[in-house]
Every structure is written in structure tokens, then in C-alpha cells.
Amino acid sequence: MDIASLTLTEARDLIASKKISPAELLDALRARAEKLNPLLNAYNHPLWDDAAERAAKCDTSGPLGGLPIAIKDCIVVKNQPATAASKILEGFVSPYSATVIEKLEAAGAYCACRTNMDEFAMGSSTENSAHGPTRNPWDTERIPGGSSGGSAAAVAAGIALAALGSDTGGSIRQPAALCGCVGMKPTYGRVSRYGLIAFASSLDQIGPFTKTVRDNALLLTHLAGHDPRDNTSLRDSADDFAADLTCGVKGLRIGLPKEYFVDGMEPEVSAAIHAAVKHLAAEGAEIVEISLPHTHLAVDTYYVIAPAEASSNLARFDGVRYGRRCTDPRDVLDLYERTRGEGFGREVKRRILLGTYVLSSGYYDAYYLRAQKVRTLIRHDFTEAFTKCDVILTPTAPTVAFKLGEKTTDPLKMYLSDIFTIAVNLAGTCALSLPCGFSEKHGKPLPIGLQIIGRPMDERTVYRVAHHYEQTTPWHKKHPKLDFVTS
Ligand code: GLN
Q1: Is this structure's pTM higher than 0.85?
Q2: Domains, the chain, ordered by start
Q3: Catalytic positions, please?
Q4: 3-state SS string for the chain
Q5: Which of 67, 309, 390, 405 registers the highest number of CB atoms within 10 A of its CB?
Q6: Given ligand 1 and candidates 116, 147, 348, 349, which is best to mutate, with the most ligand atoms within 8 Å of its CB?
């Protein structure tokens, strides 16, 4: 068993045929992680003893029997710390589990360790974590993307078989692209948000990170479904996402939005995407040009709506109920001010200020209301485009993984990392990123991600195209060389 390349499906079969036990599987991951995690910092809470106890109790006869899943630090698990990588939640232990956790456990899987992230999921590089940055397994001088950088790095480095992340503007797809794994942002309402520490509630979705498309479809099948505890959860949201995997791409119409192939994109990224399009055409797909004319407004719109919702969601962290409280407050105002002043990091404060501003009377109509109207235009763009095609192909990110510290002083530059992913969240539809090549210009090979966007509730077709592409190309077989640490 080569733990670094072992897929979730392979591990499931090994356990089902009793070739290995859940405890042996976990031990193999733990041994590798104990060597790699001090360097990568993919796990900000490496709870191996807790995982071992869960492994001993899980139901191995379930469809995910005995499989450990790493969990992003903003999804709560009963009796585990949940900090969203923020100082303000220091010491908080969750009294309950998120719906996705209950669902995983019902299928026989269990939670193994918590993954690092940008504080409250605000960022694109996992450098905004109170627990230090995560490093990219392909080049440890570089960032893994964000905000679910820990989940992506753990899967890419082979210290997790699969992980959960959350995506508000790209936080699953962009790190999946930069670390060379598969990440799905499901349709809004497909997966329950109950137990997800909220960033921007109208955009947030939980989704899986895996090494292969098949694993991803398998995991989503056990995450999706209607949940009465989340009032934005959709009825009929359960599905068998692996059902169409092997149907091929013949006759499918693939849309290429002309606005997404812009100047400023790294040439290797653009070349890899064009090669992927050519490949899918050769495999029998029909390529059609489409237009998403309001795309250029997506980042601006997002940075009004997301901070507005965040400023409201984060009001609850005031030292009274959750986590950290400042020492010896003089009065209640002092308690609020010092707890929040000491507990939140710079980026989170910037978002709260922005959000409070755009919601304040006098500015509400000019910014917030206007952004909501543009959001509707962006959504209509997709509805219109999907009358001409079945899926849309774009790059996931405009560049490969950048160096640690390269964009931390310029928030606008950082925000542009999500230029290709944000519109999908605003429209509420689904999209997946998978590897489609490597840039060889930076000394070490750096993964490039292909984004496949589907119609709302049509994850099946996205998986179908992704699986066909994956199985007819070599990219998923390549793993980062980390033997300098493991040997
Ligand atoms: N990078 C974007 C932001 O900073 C998106 C983050 C996310 O999807 N959670 O808000």
C-alpha cells in the first residue's frame, strides 16, 4: 500500500475486503503526517489520538466504512476544537456536529484532524491563519491557495485521503488547482451549512477535496441531501453523483466564455486550458463560444456582498458566548472592543469595516442594493449561457501557486486570485477544479487547474466531463516529491 497515492475508493475496498483495518490505515497516514506536517502545517489541529478513538468506533460496513476524512477548521465536530483559524475562537470546543459530519459518520467514515485555513475563510493563500501559513507540497516556498489551503495541501501531500472544505468565492476550487487535486463547490443549497461557521451565508457551500474525480463524486453523494436545520437547503438535493461517470463526452456541448481568456493570465495556464479544450473536442465534445458579459463585475460585487454578510455573521464573536474573552473588562463596551480588537486578524477586520460601511444608512442603496442587482445580472448570464452549452470550461486561477508573502501587502492583488471562481458563487451554481497540466517555468512543477462549471443541480454532468478528462490524461498520476522529508 503506497499511502501517498492511495485513493479513497482503493482504501474503501481494502477495508471492505479486510486487507487492512481502519486503525492500520490511520497509522499509515499518521506516520507520514508526523514527518510532513511540521513543514507543511496543513493540519492546525492534528488530533491523531482522537482520530484513533473514532476509527475504533466507526461502522466498517457502511459505504464509506473506516475512512478518515480531514475537516476544515470551520466545520464543527462534537467535542473537537473549532477555531476557524482565528484567535477569537481559541479554546472553543464544539458541543455538536455539523450535518455533514453526522452524514459522514452515518456512512461509516470518521473525522481525522482539522485543516488549516485563512481566518474565517477570508483569503486566497492560507497566510491569514492565526496558526501560521500552510505550505504547498509541490514547492514549500509557495502558498497552497486558500482559504481551504490546509485541506488541499493535506490531500496533495498524501497525509489525508480526502478532506472537506468550504467555498464562498473560490476557497475549494482555487487551492485544489494550486495543489493539484480535485475540489468541488456544489450548487448552493445542495449540502447543508448547519454547523459551518458562517462567512457569507448566501455564498458559502461545503464540498470535498480528493485525489480523483471518482472519489469526489463518492464523497459528495454522502454529503448532499435536504436538511431541515438549514433553511436554504434544497429539497431533492440527494443524488448518486457517480452515476454518469463513465458516459464519456460525445455529443456534450462545452462552452468557452470569451471573457475568461484575458490578458494577464500566465501563459502556461492559458496554454494548458487550450490544450484541455482541444483534447475534449478530440474526444467528441462540441465546443461552442459563449459570453458571460457581466463577469468583469464579479469581484467588485463579491467584495460588497461577502463583507456585508460577514460583518453581520461575525457580530456574535464578542467575548460573551464563544471562545476568547479579554482579561478584566471594565464594562461591556470595553469587553466587546478589546475582545474583538485582540481576537480578529487584519484581514477579518478589513472585511468587517468594509461590510459595516456598505450596509450603513446612506450607503446601503449605493453599494449593497446595487451589488445585489449586479448579482442578478451575473446569474442571468449563466442561465443564458446554459441554453447553448451543457458545461462551461475556464481556468480555475489566473496563475500557478505564488510565493509566500508575495501578495500579503496588496489585498487587491490577492482578491484577483479568485477572478474565475467568484461568479459561480454569486450565481449559486456548481463547479469543480481538477489538474490539467503543470507549469515547468518555476524550478519545480506547479499544478494548473481546469474549472468545469455546471448548471445548477447538474453536478453529475460536471463529474462526467471531469472523469473522462482525468482518465484520458496523465495529470492525476503525478504526485509531489516529498521524499526529502519522508526518507
Ligand atoms: N478568496 C476569497 C475571499 O477572500 C474567497 C474565500 C472563500 O471562498 N472562502 O473572500
Answers
A1: yes
A2: 3-257+383-477 (3.90.1300.10), 297-372 (no CATH)
A3: 72, 147, 171
A4: CCCCCCCHHHHHHHHHCCCCCHHHHHHHHHHHHHHHHHHHCCEEECCHHHHHHHHHHCCCCCCCCCCEEEEECCECCCCCECCCCCHHHCCCECCCCCHHHHHHHHCCCEEEEEECCCHHHCCCCCCCCCCCCCCECCECCECCCCCCHHHHHHHHCCCCCEEEEEECCCCCHHHHHHHCCEEEECCCCCECCCCECCCCCCCCEEEEEECCHHHHHHHHHCCECCCCCCCCCCCCCCCCCCCCCCCCCCCCEEEEEHHHCCCCCCHHHHHHHHHHHHHHHHCCCEEEEECCCCHHHHHHHHHHHHHHHHHHHHHHCCCCCCCCCCCCCCCHHHHHHHHHHHHCCHHHHHHHHHHHHHHCCCCHHHHHHHHHHHHHHHHHHHHHHCCCCCEEEEECCCCCCCECCCCCCCHHHHHHHHCCCHHHHHHCCEEEEEEEEEECCCCCCEEEEEEEEECCCCHHHHHHHHHHHHHCCCHHHCCCCCHHHHC
A5: 67
A6: 147
